[in-house]
Structure prediction request, 293 residues.
Amino acid sequence: MELKDDAPASLFKYRRHPSLASFLWSFWLKMPVKLRSLAYRALTHYGRPTSSPFATRLPFGLVLKSRSIRVVEALSTQLVGTRTAIPIPTILDVINTPSSDGTGICVLMTELSGRSMYDLRVDLTTLSKDQMSTLSDTLRNWMMQLRALTQPPDNMISGVGTTSFVSYRLSHSRSVGPFSTLQAFHEQNCLRVRRADPPETHALGDARDQKAYRLHFTHGDLTPGNILVDSNYRPVGLVDWECAAWLPEYWEIVSSVAQCPRSKEWRNMLRDILPMYDDELALDRMLWKYSNF
Prediction:
């Protein structure tokens, strides 16, 4: 994937805590970037793979992401960690080293407990009523916290710091944006209504383009693979913030449904945890034929 317009690694600021470990880590971060990079990569020899080819579990409860990662993902994770109570990894270090394979960015973070719903092959139809209630209530609370974050004054559809952002609904080959207007966003190839489309598509497209949507901070990849649960299927973490951005208020549910188009149970749960945008969902489904997924 072509990743453009990233934030500089220098924007990352480690947030110290009143503990000896945090003090010592702050001292470690003053060491040269090359030394820190060598240390992290050395630990990968003792690490374990994850479900992502770009992340490795290291000793000491750490995870290293590299090759296909941007600084803005770390900044998004840190933003959510400081302004919400959603359980997410703590970002410990962000470094940029020359690389011929990927972005050259390495992000070190803490590992969360639990396993993804995807890895556990969670079947929502087999969960008890109490388990489903806990799952839905927790995810609804997390989404409410995200949607309560204050929108930047520039009103840009963008990643943190007015950067481009990753969206698998829009492109699997490059990052997109930023966009200064909703009209520019809706002109993206897979969101644009064509002259040859049927009248009902045009009607929904016209209605969408006449609305003044609010912008909300959006995870952008809310799928079973990014929701961690414990042994009783209680959510314990939300990970992989690479698609996070300031996006129109309907985007969370639209992008999540598009990522799991065949799962009726998943769509039903999304209706329970997110505000509904039936017209936007209907229009998006009509425009899937222009997408690259």
In short: Strands lie at 48-49, 55-58, 62-66, 91-96, 105-110, 115-116, 215-218, 227-229, 235-238, 245-248. The first strand starts at residue 48 and ends at 49. Residues 129-147 form the longest helix (19 residues). The chain has a mean pLDDT of 92.
